[in-house]
Structure formats: structure tokens, C-alpha cells
Amino acid sequence: MARPGILGVSAARLHDGAARSFETLRINRTSASKPQGLSFSGAAAASVVSAVTAFSAARGTTLRSNLRARHVAMAQTIEANAYLKAKIEEMVALQPVMVFSKSWCPFCKKAKEAMEQQGIRFGVCELDQLGSEVEAEVQDILAGLTGARTVPRVFVGGNCIGGGTDTEKLAADGSLKKMVGEALASYKNKVSGATSFELEKSDEEWLSELDSEKFRILRRRGTEPPGSHKYDKFLPKVGHFSCGGCGLPLYSASSKFASTCGWPVFDKCYASDDVGQHVMGQPDGSGALEIVCTRCGSHLGHVFYDSVTEANPNGERH
Ligand SMILES: [Zn+2]
């Protein structure tokens, strides 16, 4: 698909087709328009964590198989590393302001506070929540990209502006605000050039199909109050969640996870040959990454990268 998805950047780069944050959905256009009672077949691809586990498990075999295992493990490690690099570049590309930080680090705290004081919104990846092996790898990758291994590493409009002291300094003399403004304006331009969808309807048509609350949320980028959604605490074992606008299946039951944020959350969306990724990300112009239905463009919420667990190594929270 030409349209960039949330993982469009890395999906295009990972020639093994192993972009991890979506699962394959075998479905055709006819059945996609009738969402009720559909079955799905989706399998999350191997994760970075499992590649790392395989690396350790590969040790301790006989010499011959050990060599073979080492070869496989090396390939897996290289693949995991390339994947992590693509993932980091993607976060930098999709977030107007992106901070790689450690949750306990006072310098990171300073940088974040300096930005918060100026009302600057930013994406955060807390490296200490990635597990020590991945944390070290990410720092190596950041060193390669920015010349420094230390945290925080702060990116504005895709460029590294430095660490905590640099961020504070740029915030104090007003140049940070200006840089962020320029980055947001450039993201806005990108967004306005990419908003045509397969299913286009006028507001009148949408209003005739949706109740006023759904219209406000899906078509006017509205937000429900936290804890109010009927699916917030709903964790079914089977089935899937579909777009409230057009019925396109978006997330499997297994991609939904418990969260305390007050809204239903998922760690990966569907992808199919027919549609590409069923959910696409676009900067919303305010510094956050909005997610919309790939088919009809209805607003679904935002994506954050702060939910790293063993089961969700990408840390995505949709
Ligand atoms: Zn839709």
C-alpha cells in the first residue's frame, strides 16, 4: 500500500515482511463490509523479545549444532537489531517531538519538564522499561544516530537537538518553541496531502448513518470521557473490533489488553493484502499521533509507545 501506516516506515524497510505491530487478516472486501460474526486468522509475528530468547536458548548444544545455532542466533540478533533501528527511526519520523528517556533519570525529567512548562507535547520511549538487553541495544542505536549514548536524546522534527541540558537551554531562550512550531507546521502539511480515503462520504451522509455522539467522535475527532466506553473493561477471548464508521475489522480480541488509562487499548492492528494496514497513523498537528481507519478515515484515537511488556515489545498502545 502506498498509504503510510503506523508501521509504514519500518514495514517498507523490513524486507522479510516481519513488521510486528500488525497481524495478518485474511479477509476479502465483501466480508469486510459485513463485520458481524466474522472469524479472523491472525498471528503476531515473532517479536524482538522472542528473538532475544532464541539467542540464549541456542547456546548449550553440541559443537556442530552449536555452530549452526550460532549462525541462526546471529542472524536473529542482526534482524532484531535492524528491526529496533527501524522502529526507532519510525518513532522519530512519526512524532514531531520524540524523547528517548529513562524513567528514573533526573536529566530526562528536566528535559520533559522544560517542554511541559511550554505546553509542548511529545512522545516518550522509556528505555529502562524495555529490559536491560534491549535497553543497551537501543542506546547503541541512538549513539549511531546522534553521536551520544546518553539519555535523554530529544528529537524535534526528525533531528536530534541533544540531551537534557541542551533541551533546557533551547527552551529557556525560546528557540525550542520555535523549532517545535516549525516541525508541527511541516507535519500538518504532510497530513493535508494524504487525506483521501477509499470510502468518502459527506457530513450529511455520515449524520444520517451515525448517532450524534458517534459522529462527534469518529468524524470530528472527539473524545469520550475516560472510563465511559462500554468496551473499556471488555476483554473477550475471541472476535474482533470493527470501525464504528464503516465496519472494517481493525483489531483482534487478542490484541486488546487491560489498561488503566480509561479507554480501550490494543497493541497491534490488522493488516491484509486487500487493505494494507487497517489502521493508519497521522500526526494530528498538535504533536500527537492520531490513528484513523484506513478505509473511511474515521478517527479512532491516538497511538503511544509507552506500553512495553514482554508480550508487547513494540510498546504500542492504540
Ligand atoms: Zn472505517
Describe the structure.
This protein is α+β, with helices and mostly antiparallel strands and 318 residues long. It folds into 2 domains: 160 residues, Glutaredoxin; 115 residues, Metal Binding Protein, Guanine Nucleotide Exchange Factor, Chain A (Beta Complex), CATH 2.170.150.20. 38% of the residues lie in helices and 16% in strands. The strands form 5 sheets. Strands 3-2-4-5 form a 4-stranded mixed beta sheet. Strands 1-10-11 form a 3-stranded mixed beta sheet, with no helix packed on it. Helix 4 packs across helix 6. The radius of gyration is 21 Å and the shape is globular. The site of zinc ion has 8 residues, from loops. This is MSRB3 protein. Belongs to the MsrB Met sulfoxide reductase family. InterPro entries: Glutaredoxin, Glutaredoxin_euk/vir, Glutaredoxin_subgr, Met_Sox_Rdtase_MsrB_dom, Mss4-like_sf, Thioredoxin-like_sf.
